[in-house]
Amino acid sequence: MLEMAVVGAPEYFKRHGVPATPADLAEHDCVAYRHTSSGAVYRWEFNSPGPNGHAFEVEPQGTLITNDDESMTRAALQGAGLIHHFEIAVRRQLSDGSLVRVLQPWCKPFAGFYLYIPSRDRMPPKVRAFTDFLVEKRSLLEAGGKLGKDVPVKAGSRRRQG
Description:
By secondary structure, the protein is an alpha+beta fold. The chain is 25% helix and 17% strand.
């Protein structure tokens, strides 16, 4: 299962402090993601910690809205605000310390992507090859691995549901 993460630059946290709960995000600059399909701003999804935790959403507060993952990550790296992103997309920056993860106990796992195929009977060979590839690589991605040299994974390679 992919993990979601709230991250920001160390310089941002020096200036604005570290949020202790998702409610604290109302006092922070959050870089929002706008869905290209609907135009809606993605609401950040969280779970309360603990065995009886409940799911809830927070509307990101801030002045910067983008529909591009790389721009969103660059904004966070430059200290413009916090972002809510796939952990795997910012893993390198977390490892090198250029981004810091916060609110980890609250972050909701990402259930995954969905691929709708109207008919398996008439599936084009390219679609079959793509679905076979996804099934083969799913467990590797879920374990946090890399797809390989021929298939780079970068921040702009995913789309959010909505």
